[in-house]
Amino acid sequence: MTSRSVDETIEPTSLIGTRRRRFRLGRWSAPLGIAGAVVALAWIIIAIIAPWIVPHDPLAQDLPILQPPGEGTLMGTDALGRDVFSRLLVGASVTVPLALLLVGLSVLIGAMLGSIAGFFGRGVDEVVMRVTDLVMAFPTVILAMVIAAALGASLLNAVLAALIVSWPAYARLTRGLVLGLRSSNYVVSGQLLGFSPLRSMSRDVAPNIVGPVLVLASLDIGTAILLLSGLSFLGLGAKPPTPEWGSMVSDAIHNFDSWWLGVFPGLAILTVVVAFNLVGDALRDALDPKSNTLRGGGTTL
């Protein structure tokens, strides 16, 4: 039997085709999932084009201070005479890309370490999991605050601190999935045919763990935005005058009477976090291997 024919007999036993069919037949078209995807996509587009659509320079202090919304400015001005709407739009180009970068790096590092630990086991598994347990033993926000404070206040250091506390979740998830797949028939068959560990992981294991990791990543984008905004709120992230949502809410503390200073950036954080959570929920329903709810038929297997 040739290598091509052997691969063709092994491939159907994997879960790839089943997951794809369930994804197409899942609940991705649910109204909340569509709404979340639209809002999330809108914020991503705003983050990309914000520098070209702002009505005022977000750093310029040439407007009346603490001017309410509607009097020449859409969302009013802050205590330094800067346009809140312009700073909100530019803040999206700071907060949203950094959150996506943070989640992407967490997935890359955590999934790689978790896959190695689960596939090879023994000493490698012990070392990786003990480091993971050590990081997860501390409260996430407090550990991120300590690391950010030790490194110094800056957006780069805030992302690095958040990355250190974020990757263990992906390592544990990936390790558990790989442990369950390592003894599967198609993985063992590939090893008996002489597949190298790298080829076996990339060909047989990786495609079948993408779904759960993708769901966790989509849900973690909102968490990453909250974490980065929280660090900036505490003065451990963005430095003035950088427009960032967390720092804008922090500035509003000193002017409680000017409600628009905290409400609008707070609503921005709320909408983007809820949107990505809805996307994550929709992906979970669409990729869940234990559910097969068919649209229109109402049949659950």
CATH homologous superfamily identity: MetI-like
How far do the termini sit from each other?
A: 37 Å
Number of strands: 0
**Proportion of residues in helical segments:** 55-70%
| Low-confidence spans | 1-26, 291-301
- The second-level CATH architecture is Orthogonal Bundle
CATH topology-level fold name: MetI-like fold
The biggest sheet amounts to: none
Strand content: under 5%
Rg from Cα: 23 Å
Task: Outline the structure in words.
The two termini are 37 Å apart. The N terminus and C terminus are likely disordered. The chain has 301 residues and is mainly alpha-helical. It has one domain: MetI-like fold (Orthogonal Bundle). The protein is elongated and about 75 Å long.
Task: Describe this protein with a few key phrases.
0% strand, mainly alpha, disordered C terminus, elongated, disordered N terminus, 70% helix
Task: Write the topology of this structure.
Blueprint lengths: L2 H8 L5 H10 L5 H23 L30 H37 L1 H15 L3 H12 L3 H28 L2 H8 L4 H9 L4 H24 L11 H8 L7 H28 L14
Helix pairs in contact: 2-12, 3-4, 3-12, 4-5, 4-7, 4-10, 4-12, 5-7, 6-7, 7-10, 8-9, 10-11, 10-12, 11-12
Summarize the structure.
The protein has 301 residues and is mainly alpha-helical. It has twelve helices and no strands. The chain is elongated.
